């Protein structure tokens, strides 16, 4: 064999080996890809079926997206292990590698694991549920979903807010819905020349005439401060959480009209300028 024939022989050998490997692994690869695609489609259907079944069973709406996400992740993990086995990766070796890498993965995904644990705590202790108006991490909104890792809020400005479950479970959460009512805090300033009793009566009448203001607990009106240019009244009606903004805006508007009708002045800052000639 001369120097020219040797590379050709090696190339033929490599080509034959590649051909043999192709005959062995090509069908497996095609089958594994088909299995992966079909498996993902089936998992999507199963997840929807689980959610629909929970809806029919009248399960707590907060639990439905959480369990749906959990089922989806578990089934996908099993699917990927099965596909790896079909390609030729030893399942026992694959699981052993996952186990050995568990610590490293755990360290790398500390935040994700904390968020998952936070989601479990939210499911168990239920500080809030879907539909509740809450405030957490400086954000106010209605709970739309509690997922495996995150809680989804819809703000009054129709913004979608995603808050990690770890933050909500370890931080403070204000739930405005759980008590079934919420107080609207307003401060109304009137002139020092206004009669206090008349002003209180006018403000209280506005609250009593608003059909979204709760009768129990009774609305409150009282003098809260003697300010620089006004006597400030604390106006404190209660309403249902979902009526908060309706009451806030409608009461403000009605108060302005009522004060004008009764000739009760609303002061505004004024400044007197004196010119002194040198």
Automatic annotation (TrEMBL):
Quote the cellular component terms of the Gene Ontology held in the record: plasma membrane
Top-level taxon: Bacteria
Location in the cell: Cell inner membrane; Cell membrane
Q: How does it sit in the membrane?
A: Multi-pass membrane protein
| Residues covered by the Mechanosensitive ion channel transmembrane helices 2/3 domain | 77-110
Which UniProt keywords are listed?
Cell inner membrane, Cell membrane, Ion channel, Ion transport, Membrane, Transmembrane, Transmembrane helix, Transport
Domain Mechanosensitive ion channel MscS C-terminal stretches: 184-266
Give the protein name, as stated in the record: Small-conductance mechanosensitive channel
Task: State the species of origin.
Answer: Colwellia demingiae
């Amino acid at each position: 064999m001369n120097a020219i024939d040797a590379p050709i022989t090696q190339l033929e050998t490599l080509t034959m080996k590649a051909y043999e490997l192709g005959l062995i692994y090509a069908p497996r690869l095609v089958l594994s890809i088909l299995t992966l695609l079909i498996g993902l489609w089936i998992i999507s259907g199963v997840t929807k079926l689980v959610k629909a079944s929970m809806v029919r069973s009248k399960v707590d709406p907060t639990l439905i997206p959480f369990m749906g996400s959990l089922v989806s992740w578990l089934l996908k993990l099993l699917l990927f292990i099965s596909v790896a086995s079909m390609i030729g990766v030893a399942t026992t070796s694959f699981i052993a590698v996952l186990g050995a890498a568990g610590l490293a993965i755990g360290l790398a995904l500390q935040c994700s694991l904390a968020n998952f644990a936070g989601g479990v705590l939210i499911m168990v202790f239920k500080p809030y549920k879907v539909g509740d108006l809450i405030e957490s991490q400086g954000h106010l909104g209605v709970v739309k979903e509690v997922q495996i890792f995150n809680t989804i809020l819809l703000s009054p400005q129709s913004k979608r807010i995603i808050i990690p479950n770890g933050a909500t479970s370890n931080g403070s959460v204000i739930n405005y819905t759980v008590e079934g009512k919420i107080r609207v805090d307003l401060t109304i300033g009137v002139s020092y020349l206004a009669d206090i009793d008349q002003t209180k009566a006018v403000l209280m009448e506005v609250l009593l005439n608003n059909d979204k203001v709760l009768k129990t607990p009774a609305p409150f009106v009282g003098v809260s401060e003697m300010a620089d240019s006004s006597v400030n009244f604390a106006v404190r009606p209660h309403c249902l959480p979902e009526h908060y903004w309706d009451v806030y805006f409608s009461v403000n508007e009605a108060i302005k009209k009522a004060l004008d009708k009764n000739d009760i002045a609303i002061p505004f800052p004024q400044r007197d300028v004196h010119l002194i000639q040198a």
